[in-house]
Amino acid sequence: MQMQVLGVVALLGAGMILAGCKSAPDLTGTQALGLIQAKYDQTPPVGANIIVNDLGMRQGAVAKLWDRTTIYPNKYWADFKLTPDGKKAIKLPNGGDVIQWRPASADDTNYSITMVTVAANHLRAHDIGTIQDEMLPGVDTAKGAGYTEGVDLTGVPDALQQIAHNPGNRLSMKRHADFALANGAWALHSIE
């Protein structure tokens, strides 16, 4: 009789333990990207930084984003004034409307300046990798995945988009997101 009672107690205990152990819901790539994008969409939109080198300066002049106003005696320094179309497309770091082009020499191919697009957009998350279990301090159940964070050039004139694709510009980068299970639902924990 005691053996039967102990057997029943053991079965009930095992059943209670199994009932209390629920497996975490799956986190799909679509859900993970949605959580990341929601975070990006909550932050204020920003203009994209565009590095403009010698090729970009020529492209901008041909596209009438700026006009050369001054050539200096050394023949490789120049000032360029933003055109009305240029003022609608970019902001200069100094806040003015004159680009001061000052390479170190006539054959300086490394000189560049950074401009910021007037069009402000949210970053975009795409191309998520394999979602894997992770260990995070203070988190019971966690997952993580790598993904690509990209600049959104919506509203940026075509000529400036072409300049943005010149060497030296970085329009996307690899990032890593961590997710934590909280109250039965996945939430974005952090982005590295």
Would you kindly provide a brief summary of this structure?
By secondary structure, the chain is of the alpha+beta class.
Largest sheet: 5 strands, antiparallel
% residues in beta strands: 35-45%
> Total domains, how many?
1
- Helical proportion, percent range: 25-40%
Morphology call: elongated
What secondary-structure arrangement, pairings included, does this model have?
Layout: H1 2-20, H2 29-42, E1 46-52, H3 54-62, E2 66-71, E3 78-82, H4 84-89, E4 90-91, E5 98-101, E6 113-121, E7 124-126, E8 132-136, E9 139-150, H5 158-164, E10 172-182, E11 185-191
Antiparallel strand pairs: 1-6, 2-3, 3-5, 4-6, 7-9, 8-9, 9-10, 10-11
Descriptive overview:
The chain has one domain (25-191). Helices cover 29% and strands 37% of the residues. The chain has helices at residues 2-20, 29-42, 54-62, 84-89, 158-164; strands at residues 46-52, 66-71, 78-82, 90-91, 98-101, 113-121, 124-126, 132-136, 139-150, 172-182, 185-191. Strands 7, 8, 9, 10 and 11 form a 5-stranded antiparallel beta sheet that branches. Strands 1-6-4 form a 3-stranded antiparallel beta sheet. Helix 3 (54-62) runs antiparallel to helix 5 (158-164). The longest helix has 19 residues, at 2-20. It is elongated, with a radius of gyration of 28 Å.
